[in-house]
C-alpha cells in the first residue's frame, strides 16, 4: 500500500533534517541539548500536504511533574511559537507540498528557514532558570489557559511551595463560579497538585 501524501511529506522533511541533530520521535522532531533539555520541531497540518512549523523547547524536569500530575502530552514543548512569527517582515506560515511531487526542494526550504529563525529561538529559551525567571517576572506572556498551571509548576521546581499554592488559590478563586471545560479541568489539576505536592 502506498504511503499517504502526509507521510511522504514528513519523510521528505525528516530527510532534510537528518544532518541537523533533530531526530524524529513520533510526530515531532527533538534535538537533545543535554541536562534534560530538548529543542523541538512540530507541525500543524492543514489539508493533506501543507505544514505550519512550530519551534519549541522541552524540559524534562517540567515533564516529570506533569507526568506525576497526569497532565500534559509527552513530547509537547514547554514553550513554542510558529516559525512564521519568528521570521520578521515577510513571514512564511505554511509550506505547501504538491501531492506526488518532488518534496525535496520544499522540505529543504522549510528546514533552512527553521535553522535560520527557529533554531535561534530554541537557543534563547533552552535554559530552564532563565526561562522560569522570565515567566515569573512576566506571567502575562503565557496564554490564559496555561498560565496558572505553568507558574505553579515553575514555583514548585524552584522549591517555593508557598508561591505555587498562592498561584493555585488565586486561579481557583477566579474560576470558582465557572462551569466551562477549562474551569473544571483547572479545579481537578489544582486538587491533584495539592495531593501530590502538599505544601
Provide structural commentary.
The structure is a single chain. The protein is an alpha+beta fold. It has helices spanning 5-17, 60-69, 83-86, 104-125, 128-137, 144-157, 161-174, 181-196, and strands at 23-25, 28-32, 37-46, 50-59, 79-82, 95-96. Strands 1, 2, 3, 4, 5 and 6 form a six-stranded antiparallel beta sheet that branches. Helix 6 packs antiparallel against helix 7 (161-174) and helix 7 packs antiparallel against helix 8. 32% of the residues are buried. The model has no long low-confidence stretch (mean pLDDT 93).
Write the layout of secondary structure elements.
Elements: H1 5-17, E1 23-25, E2 28-32, E3 37-46, E4 50-59, H2 60-69, E5 79-82, H3 83-86, E6 95-96, H4 104-125, H5 128-137, H6 144-157, H7 161-174, H8 181-196
Antiparallel strand pairs: 1-2, 2-3, 3-4, 4-5, 4-6
